[in-house]
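Example for tutorial group B:
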């Protein structure tokens, strides 16, 4: 019996040691990565370069804001900090981390969608796990996801939260096995030329009925607006101009939750005396299926037109910062 217990204990310790070593290897790999979300997080939270315009938002910001094109149109250095599933929780965390390591940008573009103000959980949580040793980020994450707090004491269990792709990216970076050096100016945008498919055509009517349902916004946005106000206060304290924008939505503007989100942000900014610009672009000529590859993400052609429209609006709003507006 005693020998069996010793064997079990030894096996358990060996398993923990293996997990610990594997986790450390993954962390080193993530720290060296220049691709995927880990590469973006490295630039947002560890790099010291200055960008004139920082864009934050979800996958819609990632897909629709073509950094290089905006830079060419405005003459300003632009970084697309959009991350899949990002909401105001992620945006607040990323902006705080960015401001700790980078010089302040001149303009912060916050790309809004109907889910921006939701705060009940952090989507795509594995994207942030490599950065948990950072105390500030750890506190931000565990405040939203308290069930994950045990990782503070058992960090090697992070291994189980990385999918195979992320593990491969870390291992590939660790051993320099073709780690792609993506252009940081582009912000790793996931632009695609794929067109509208038969599948999305079949889903369009169903989806439109769902998102067009009445929405009761009373009390639903309070915590999100408080977190958004933290972003705005930090921006104001560092002299950063804030611009709110959003992409076109298929089906026009009749999406109650989106409209409620926009109105809540506008009202909150007015009540708090926030000096922010509103360049909403959801009612533009880009409401065409040919510009999308699914219901909410644009293909390259649509993204470029949207980036042009945003660039020209920025140039009209901040004329001293622009060199090649409209060209």
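The residue assignment follows.
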């Amino acid at each position: 019996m005693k020998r069996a217990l010793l064997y079990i204990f030894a096996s358990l310790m060996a398993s923990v040691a293996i997990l610990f070593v594997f986790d450390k290897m993954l962390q080193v790999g993530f720290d060296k990565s220049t691709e995927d979300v880990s590469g973006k997080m490295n630039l947002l939270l560890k790099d010291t370069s200055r960008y004139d315009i920082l864009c934050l938002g979800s996958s819609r910001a990632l897909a629709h804001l073509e950094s290089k094109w905006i830079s060419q149109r405005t003459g300003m250095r632009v970084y697309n900090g959009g991350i899949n599933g990002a909401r105001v929780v992620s945006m607040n965390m990323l902006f705080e981390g960015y401001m700790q390591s980078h010089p302040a940008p001149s303009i912060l573009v916050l790309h809004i969608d109907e889910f921006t103000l939701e705060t009940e959980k952090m989507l795509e949580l594995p994207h942030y796990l490599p950065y948990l040793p950072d105390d500030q980020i750890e506190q931000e994450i565990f405040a939203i996801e308290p069930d994950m707090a045990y990782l503070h004491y058992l960090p090697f269990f992070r291994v189980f939260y990385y999918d195979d792709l992320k593990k491969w990216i870390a291992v590939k970076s660790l051993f320099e096995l073709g780690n792609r050096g993506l252009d940081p100016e582009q912000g790793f945008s996931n632009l695609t030329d794929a067109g509208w498919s038969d599948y999305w055509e079949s889903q369009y009517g169903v989806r439109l009925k769902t998102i067009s349902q009445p929405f009761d916004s009373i009390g639903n946005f309070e915590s999100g607006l408080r977190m958004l106000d933290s972003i705005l206060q930090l921006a104001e304290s560092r002299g950063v101009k804030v611009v709110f924008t959003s992409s076109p939505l298929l089906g026009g503007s009749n999406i109650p939750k989106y409209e409620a989100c926009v109105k809540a942000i506008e009202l909150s900014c007015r009540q708090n005396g926030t000096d922010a610009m509103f360049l909403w672009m959801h009612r533009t000529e880009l409401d065409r299926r040919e510009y999308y590859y699914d219901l909410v993400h644009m293909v390259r052609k649509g993204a470029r037109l949207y980036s042009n429209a945003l660039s020209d609006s920025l140039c009209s709003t901040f004329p001293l910062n622009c060199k090649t507006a409209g060209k």
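The domain at 2-321 is CATH 3.40.50.1110 (Rossmann fold). Compare this with the pattern of hydrophobic and polar residues in the output above.
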